[in-house]
Amino acid sequence: MTPPSATIVALATAPAAGAVGILRLSGPAALEVGRALAPGVPEVPTPRHAYLATFVDASGGVLDEGLFLYFRAPQSFTGEDVVELQAHGSPRLLRLLLARTLEDVRVRPALPGEFTRRAFLNGRIDLTRAEAVADLVAADSEAAVRAAAAGLSGALAERIRALEEPLRALHADLEGVLNFPDEAEGADEDAGPRVATLRSEAEALRAEVGRGRLVRQGARVALYGPVNAGKSTLFNRLVGEERALVDAEPGTTRDALEARVEWDGLGVTLYDTAGLREAPGRVEALGIARTRDLLAAVDLAVLVLPPEASGEEASSWVREAGATPVFVVTGKCDVAPVSAPWESVPGFPAHEEREASLPFPGPRAASATSVSFPGPGAASGTSLPSHGRPRVSGLTGEGVEGLRTSVLGRLWGGGTPSAVALVSERHADALRRTAEALGRAEEASRVSTLEVLSGEVGLALEALGEVSGTSVSDALLDTLFQRFCIGK
Ligand SMILES: Nc1nc2c(c(=O)[nH]1)N(C=O)[C@@H](CNc1ccc(C(=O)N[C@@H](CCC(=O)O)C(=O)O)cc1)CN2
Ligand SMILES: Nc1nc2c(ncn2[C@@H]2O[C@H](COP(=O)(O)OP(=O)(O)OP(=O)(O)O)[C@@H](O)[C@H]2O)c(=O)[nH]1
Ligand SMILES: [Mg+2]
After folding, report:
1. How far is CA 64 from CA 36, 83, 89, 101, 106, in A?
2. Which residues hold Mg(2+) (predicted)?
3. What is the model's pTM?
4. pLDDT for residue 371 is more than 90
5. DSSP 3-state of 307
6. Is 273 labelled a binding residue?
């Protein structure tokens, strides 16, 4: 017999003054303890009925008038008896109520995430949904909210189950053939193709981790380029307020500035950086070093060039970004001559078209070791055409909307940022181990024994179980739920 679980208590609302503050109890003693604070509530309250009740101290003194809710196990968030006292949102009052519940020896304060952990342990939600609860609480963009909400309603759980069930069936078939060769004869026949299909599905799901990270953490985009190109003016335009200093003096921006925006629901942290040039002053050189570090860390670099920059200069600048993808624009287009007729067409070509038209292998193939900054006429093996470059003006706003759209396209590709399974680094790691075991299983199906094949399929199943929670250790659960807040 498992020992009776403690009844836990915590504030379910933030410990700050607010309209309503909620104290939540979960566990076998929840009703009794809750009723001690709200003696007017019937001994056997109707579950899920909101009782208007008087909350009292130990000697019956009135502390508040609030709502009392009872959820009878297992029809509750945790699957246990749950009681909520919904009081006025006074932090001091809530501490008094909390202290009163803790006078009962059966009650202890909840650990971070413990309500959700109990929901998981009691089979109310699988692990991906439990994690979606934390994602939702932490979400700081509309895309993050929507993706977490989809996770909460089982979007990722469903895709994991679609892998886990056939994998389990395959494992059972293989074990059947191993243990009862006569009865189960032939059940392992198509094991090879079955493994291959499951492996590619695991890989496909794992590939979503990049998008998951973008949604969860937001994208990072840096404006960079030569001094005085109009980066700060463009930054201010994109952010919608005068955040960065702008001046005709080259070298105005010394330190990277950042601002958070939300584009089509996707959180984007924009950086304005110190313009790059040779022979800068000492302080400016420090700023330039920071620009370099930042360029290595962002998801996309937007290179802002002066209208007169040549194709050779452009490709040297692109190399400055190292492995970071670069989107090149011509700034100050309001004062730049239109060099080709198609440039006056509003909006930009889609980024795929631009990519395809670039006569160089792309920023990812570029060397990250170049040390000198391109000056006018810098020699270089490759060259970016200046005529096809999108044109923007931070001053007039021309082309800025198109830039925003192109940057989003580069970051996200097709589809909407919210339509995504929030695959975390943790999930991706488990999926990688799943796929690796399936890779070995595939190999084993050709060259090895059934035991080896089945063993690898078993390992794949175990790794996958870490995502759904069908095979998790207490240690893993500890780490996972530590990132929750108390009361969640
Ligand atoms: N006041 C309050 N609001 C809250 C919560 C809460 O605990 N209290 N939640 C806490 O995170 C979230 C809601 N999540 C919940 C999930 C399941 C059940 C529940 O009672 N489930 C039962 C019955 C389902 C049904 O009737 O359809 C069940 O699953 O059996 C309650 C809340 C957000 N809002
Ligand atoms: N005509 C025109 N002038 C601009 C535009 N953008 C910036 N400028 C002017 O160009 C000068 C430099 O602008 P900044 O935005 O400070 O340029 P920056 O690239 O941030 O410069 P550093 O920080 O020194 O590297 C200022 O005098 C701006 O008013 C533009 O789109 N059109
Ligand atoms: Mg600047």
Report:
1. 14, 17, 10, 15, 24
2. 232, 253
3. 0.83
4. no
5. coil
6. yes
